[in-house]
Amino acid sequence: MSLLEVKNLRVRFDTRRGPVQAVEHVSLRVERGELVALVGESGSGKSVSALALLSLLPRPPAVVETGEAWFEGRNLLALGERELRRVRGAQIALVPQDPNTALHPLYTIGDQIVEALRLHRELSYAAARELAAQALAEVGVPAPRERLDAYPHELSGGLRQRAMIAMAIALEPKLLIADEPTTALDVTVQAQILKLLARLRRERDLGVLLITHDLGLVAQYADRVGVMYSGAIVESGPTRELFRAPAHPYTRGLLASARSLDGPQGAKLESIGGLPPDPLAPPPGCAFAARCAFAVEACTRARPPSLPPGGLRALASSGVDVDIAAERRVACFEHERVLARAGDLA
Amino acid sequence: MSERSASSTPSWFRDADYEFAAVQIERLRPESPWRKARERLSQRASVRWSLRFLVFLALLSFLAPLLPLPSPAAITVAAEPAPPVAPWSALGDHKFVPEYWDLNPLDRALVSVRTSLFGKWRTGPWLGTDALGRDVLARVVWGSRTSLLVALCAALTSLVVGVTWGALAGLVGGRLDNVLMRIVDVLFAVPTIFIVIFTLSFLDAPKSAVGEASLLSREQVFFLVVGAVSWLSMARVVRGQVLELKRSAFVEAARIAGASTPWILRVHVLPNVLGLVIVNLTLTLPSVILYEAFLSFLGLGVEPPKVSWGLLAAEGAEALNPLESYVWLIAAPALVMALTLFALQTLGDGLRDAFGVEERSER
Amino acid sequence: MLRFLARRAAWFALTTWVVITLAFFLLRAAPGGPFSSERKLHPSVEAALREQYHLDWPLWKQYLHTLGPLNLDERGWLGDGADPFGGVLAGDFGPSMQHRDVSVNDVLASSLPISITLGSLALALALVLGLSAGVASAHSPGSKLDQSVRALATGGLVLPNFVLASLLVLVFAFWIPVLPVAGFGTPRHLVLPSLALALPFAAYIARLSRAGLLETLSKDYIRTARAKGASRARILWKHAMRGALAPVVSYLGPAAAGVLTGSLVIERIFAIPGAGTHFIASALNRDYTLAMGVTVVYAVLVFGFNTLVDVAYTLLDPRLDLEQEA
Ligand SMILES: Nc1ncnc2c1ncn2[C@@H]1O[C@H](COP(=O)(O)OP(=O)(O)O)[C@@H](O)[C@H]1O
Ligand SMILES: [Mg+2]
After folding, report:
1. Could you say which DSSP state residue B359 is in?
2. How much is the pTM?
3. How many alpha carbons lie under 13 Å from residue B76 in its C-beta half-sphere?
4. Searching chain C, which residue's CA lies closest to the CA of residue A151?
5. Given an 8 Å threshold on Cβ–Cβ distance, is A106 in contact with C318?
6. Cβ separation of A274 and B23 shorter than 8 Å?
7. In terms of domains, do A59 and A128 share one?
8. CATH number for the B33-62+135-362 domain, one of 1.10.3720.10, 1.10.3210.10, 1.10.10.10, 3.40.1050.10?
9. What separation in Å is there between the alpha carbon of C232 and the centre of ligand 2?
10. Percentage of residues in chain A having pLDDT higher than 70
11. What pLDDT, in 10s, does the model give residues C9-35?
């Protein structure tokens, strides 16, 4: 049994200007001790998907239309508020997107971690404080005892992010959902935080769902990847295979632009032209069609369905190990043509 | 959102990166506050009705001399307050006597038009009469003139003095800002009610041996004083908003793009400040109308035989007792006042939502 | 903190001086005087009275005499050495001009405690009523309860307080006669006046706290608290309340000034012998000294309360620094 298995998640926002289908189709799986990455440009629905799992979206305007999220034999989306509260924080912890706004500005870091601990465990204040200091030390905060009494505004961005992570892991959860934990940080701190997450999952058998748009980090740390575009996971699979041979034009575009960034100086910077569709007026066909170099007429008429696992037979002809490819899924009519040109990327 | 940037961009210059940059800049710049506000306001029935009510009231109040109402000042000796009579059982009679206080020339002209239009016909006592036999409906309509005029006065001072003061402080900044705002701070700390009462009591020298005539009538001083104390919060609010805008990303972007100062003022600062100004006005007006009532209750309002809502409500409150329930005397002025303030409040809330202004505790 | 208090003290001095000066000149500029009205006074008596109260002095001398803190009286500077301090700044308002033989300090000592009791009670009541209504309303926005709270709050804001007070009197004096409606003495006498005084402020506080709570509840850190597994009640009371209180606390300054103003009306309706009664009478009767006394005391009260509010405000938010706020 997987640690977390999400099936067919759909989320809509009823806004003043009309309904917005923020998440259209998300299915994903995280095993114990596994680090799964969710990548995609901003606005593609990564955060909304993550928040929907713990029923943390503001309702209204959010409506979870369909979906199941199985965690240790229970469907999170069908749990009552009381049971859900016992899962939140204790079993599944969230590191929200922006540590600057996610910490309560009027309470000290220590009090906020202590609160998390005491909500789920019978602990004295002093004992909880001790544990909080340990958690801070574990995530590499220098002088943790003094930081307990600091207010968020007295800390740097990197320290705030670490405090958030400390708060999340203090209760030793089984799954950690980290929403862009490194976006606001500089490169060295980024690497430290990712190393920290990698170590925690090794030492504690922690499952991690890492939301990011940094493909470099994904390549280095993630076991598996889901690529999101405009509310749907358009392609997913083991990181190495997916990076070696992308089957969706969007994944391909992402990889190409990431590589051109790393490439020799003066090389032409590649980027995916155009913009994602207006969420209020989505096109009838594939959401990526307007920006896609591989698009054919069929793409503008209907949404390409997600291929069932093992359906990527074409992979064999491009020289990829078919056994591994059984885990790969893609939603594109033209995936064979895309795959066939995987060689151009390198 | 992007249609404007797209149409104003030459097509040869429209590659993906540029478009991305254009979208980012558009995102920094808030949507036009006016269009957004209009869009949101027009969706609200309550706001529409409030606006209609206020316009109707303003018309009624301005045209009061023209209406075939009984005279608001004509006293019937030894009368008892009479309860309201339904219009269908007493539509009106022909006993109109043109008794007013010193009217200004325009109002006199309107009265003479009224006499030639309706002759001696006047409406019946639809809202009853008071202890001096005066028609309550006529008094409420005429009374609205004082209350609305006070509100108008406060609005004008707020607009002229408050906005200029705050905008000057915010735009120029530095030492001038410091001086201007310290003055506002001190004035805020001086309890304004004292100034108001002292000033008004000058003109109320009933015991003064020699009738020293003052230059201004009590009403005029009253308007001046209310205006003088109502601009302070406006100055603060406007300054705050101007400072915020000066620091904001889209003004910065415009400045980097080489926009001139007048252009930034006109396109970015003015529209955004104006929303706040309007919202603040709708908050000032109710408090000024209540202030008029408060002063009238203390006997410092308009001088009889002139009327105001505050005066009517105060008279009504005094006449309130359970033995002889002259309820209409208080119900009529209280109800129009409540309706007016409610309309202003609804309008203010609607505008606040529409312009995305937070509820503040200024004043 | 010390620097804050020092700056506050400087402001206090400036404000008090402005108030004294304004009051002094406004009063003297008004036509008539404290004795000009009583026709039965013989001119020689009036002259004697004017002399007694130094009204025959040039204006600048009167001003210095009123202002203090160094005494300037008929014996000359410093009261001839016998009595060096006097005037408003020394806390001595002098004898009342209307109620002769009584000093303004005595008048204030007997009436001010009544007004302060009434005012603080009303403020406390406004806070309790307003906050509970606001919380109840924000707990389930859009519910029946929320709608009725908002309707009531609107009612409290659109009617002059004397109308509200008259309605209370009508109800409690004649229909449900359980509470006294006039006078002062027992705690029961205080219920209706303080309620009438509190209602408009309670209504505004309800609005402010509701809006503040709803705004705070939409913040990211509230989501963090939910992600930790905190309950709704805990989130409302612990996480949202503190931030939502800020606008309410900063409203308390203006509210205190408003309560003082409102008590002028309430004291009259409920026949309460507070300082408000003297306020208008002294201004109308040109009782220069008493009017000055009431004005200065009210200004000091408002200023002191505002300082307290500022301190409370910075205690509420660790990001604010008293030094800068001063
Ligand atoms: N509170 C909201 N109201 C309306 N729409 C929302 C709201 N939050 C998110 N959305 C919609 O959901 C989409 C996905 O947002 P999000 O999940 O935050 O993207 P990201 O992938 O950058 O995390 C956005 O493009 C937006 O249209
Ligand atoms: Mg996100």
Report:
1. P
2. 0.81
3. 15
4. C318
5. yes
6. no
7. no
8. 1.10.3720.10
9. 25
10. 90
11. 888 888 888 888 888 887 777 666 666
